[in-house]
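Our preliminary data section would be incomplete without showing what the modeling component actually yields. Below, a chain of 290 amino acids is followed by its predicted structure, encoded as tokens that our downstream tools consume directly.
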Amino acid sequence: MSVLLEALIPGLTVGCIYALVALGFVVLYSVTKMYHILIGEFTMLGGMIGATLFAAGLPLPAAILLAIVLATIISAAVWYIIFRRPFARGASIMNLKLITIALTLVSVGIAYMVWGTFYKELPNFAKIDLNLGTVHVSPQAPWIWGVLLLVVAGLSFFFDRTLVGKALRASSDQPMGACLVGIDPHSMAFYAFTLAGALGAVAGIVVAPLTMTYYGTGITFTLNGLLAAMAGGPNRFEGAILGGLFLGVIESLVGAFISSQFMTVITVACFIIILVIRPQGILGVKEQEQ
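Predicted structure:
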């Protein structure tokens, strides 16, 4: 039993990170109907900026807050400068994807020039000695769980109680009807991209004390977050959370009971099976049914 817990707890913890990134994919896909792989780069960016600011002498809370703010501003600037005109002019999804891929490569190169190959880390947010029986839990794990719950509650409030959130939900559920009542789809895409970048930055900040971060981690979070979003359902927040937790737990169980060498292969195989059986994801809704 203790061996199972030793595998499940880290799996759920990492799964919460994947779920945070997947939420960004879901927010963006719901409005733009495409995946922007740049979200994983904002995960890297949040962690690297936060670690750099902390190393420069800022208190940990200030470094965390400022890193999220800066990453969010960069996210907004990237959409406004790079994507606004192509999106407004009806550029094809393929062209937008190619722009995204190019920007991902550029961001990796810039991060390499700024930070080099050195790993960066943040200290645990608090010293919490938590043990479940004989299983020791990382001091950062409860913070990761709590941040996911806080983000989900914040998103629920944002989409249910604010004008911008309701407009985003309308653009997602009924894009034609949203346009008819005066909701600008281009503005909604901007808000969605900015929010997705912020979610990625939050994920990068909370995971930095657990796994450290470096200039190339964005690709890993992009792939795992995208897998989680697609398998859970690209148009459902609940699907993103379920997909992220499922991915984290499967990885951990395979590593603990089979071999870490087969972790990626078995995990991807599970997601392929899910998408073959249910292409819209476990909790996803077919587009024509929305």
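Residues 2-289 form one domain. The radius of gyration is 19 Å. Preliminary results of this kind motivate Aim 1 of the renewal.
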